[in-house]
Design goal:
Elements lengths: L2 H21 L22 E7 L4 H14 L3 E6 L3 H8 L6 E4 L5 H6 L10 E15 L10 E3 L1 H8 L9 H6 L11 E5 L4 H13 L18 E3 L1 H11 L3 E6 L7 E7 L2 E3 L3 H9 L2 E2 L11 E2 L13 E8 L6 H14 L2 H11 L6 H12 L3
Parallel strand pairs: 1-2, 1-3, 5-9, 6-7, 6-8
Antiparallel strand pairs: 3-13, 4-8, 4-9, 4-13, 9-10, 11-12
Helix pairs in contact: 1-10, 1-11, 2-11
GO biological process, one term: phosphate ion transmembrane transport
Keywords: Phosphate transport, Signal, Transport
Pfam families: PBP_like_2
Length: about 375
């Protein structure tokens, strides 16, 4: 499919997004009533399946709805089986794309030669979300108060060095908050998780010697309570006073959240502040493989109002597919979901952080290189 055809498809959705933006105001302007989106015949038709990161599930559902309104003959399904399972399924040739909370590793890139007609699979960022340090503390979280913490304090809580809520390190940063003499209970993921990997990546980058564990998708110590999935972590935190954990902001509900120290300021979590951190991040030029766009998140950013604990999730596709129709779909799909209207649709559905232009410019070039 030509680039001009793809852009016509995206333009149909973009026009609706523009109408929505006129009706809305502020940074969180979103698409108007999705039922008003006109459908139209396009060259995209057939059955297409994706699988992978559960973090993307709500966004993918919004993207499928938007894409199918202008491509009614495209039937799309998505299995939120997890990042690793999604990549494995893609590498068997059973799906058109995979979603993953971490980039492909060297072995996976090489293995993709058997799936793609030419070249090797590539990954592009499609979804970004801030990871909240969420807590349940009577008299604090239930009154809508944030707690303020620097990277060292967060690391010491999660490595077991700080065990009480009124520890001097927490109290010094929160002089206006009455903190109880109460044990801290850590809640972490019990399953292999891209959220864990990204949270640990922040601690390792920003906390220095206060975090000595290696990067891993598995929680690295035996402290506290494990819970499966983001929903399990949030549920466990919610059920007991004195708990703290980490989770995608879109699912933390009424729990308290930590404002993280950046430079001399403490930055509350939000989609906007997470996006600001991505503006201050760069594409990792050391990544091997054609067309790959992997973001090196600057967890040590000093940018104004930049929240540094961010997770980026990727979509994985072939540069050339054995089936031409699948290739046409994959290029149109990636073009839409990384476009401004696609990112607005995801933000409306999940509260995600829209990808800034320093990332989307590279993504657009990568997708246009598909044949």
């Amino acid at each position: 499919m030509s680039t001009s055809t793809i852009r016509r498809i995206v333009a149909a959705v973009a026009g609706v997004a523009l109408l929505g933006s006129v009706a809305a105001c502020g940074d969180n302007a979103a698409i108007d009533d999705p039922d008003t989106v006109p459908s139209s015949k396009t060259e995209i038709s057939g059955n297409f399946a994706g699988a992978g990161a559960s973090s993307q599930q709500a966004a993918v559902e919004a993207w499928i709805s938007g894409f199918q309104r202008v491509n009614p003959q495209a039937k799309i399904s998505y299995n939120p089986s997890g990042s690793g399972a999604g990549v494995t399924t893609f590498l068997t040739g059973a799906t058109a794309w995979a979603s993953s909370d971490k980039p492909l590793d060297h072995e996976e890139v090489n293995e993709s030669k058997s799936v793609c007609k030419e070249g090797t699979a590539f990954d592009v960022p499609v979804y970004a979300t801030p990871i909240a340090v969420a807590f349940n503390l009577n008299g604090v979280s239930d009154t809508g108060q944030h707690l303020r913490m620097d990277a060292s304090t967060i690391a010491k809580i999660f490595n077991g060095s700080i065990t009480q809520w009124n520890d001097p390190a927490i109290a010094k940063q929160n002089p206006d908050v009455t903190l109880p003499h109460l044990p801290i209970t850590i809640v972490h993921r019990s399953d292999k998780s891209g959220t864990t990997l990204n949270f640990v990546e922040y601690l390792k980058a920003a906390a220095g010697n206060d975090w000595k564990y290696d990067l891993s998708e598995n929680w690295p110590n035996e402290l506290g309570q494990g819970a499966k999935g983001t929903s399990g972590v949030v549920s466990t935190i919610t059920q007991a006073n004195g708990t703290i954990g980490y989770a995608d902001l879109s699912q933390v509900g009424e729990l308290g959240t930590v404002a993280v120290k950046v430079g001399d300021d403490y930055v509350p979590i939000s989609a906007k502040s997470a996006s600001n951190a991505l503006v201050d991040s760069k594409i990792d030029e050391s990544v091997q493989g054609a067309n790959r766009v992997v973001v090196a998140i600057n967890h040590n950013t000093k940018a104004e109002n930049a929240y540094p604990i961010v997770m980026i999730s990727y979509d994985i596709a072939c540069p050339v597919y054995k089936d031409e129709n699948t290739g046409r779909f994959a290029q149109a799909w990636l073009t839409y979901i990384t476009s401004q209207p696609g990112q607005i649709a995801a933000q409306k559905a999940t509260g995600s952080a829209p990808l800034p232009s320093n990332i989307t410019d590279a993504v657009e070039a990568s997708i246009e290189a598909m044949n």
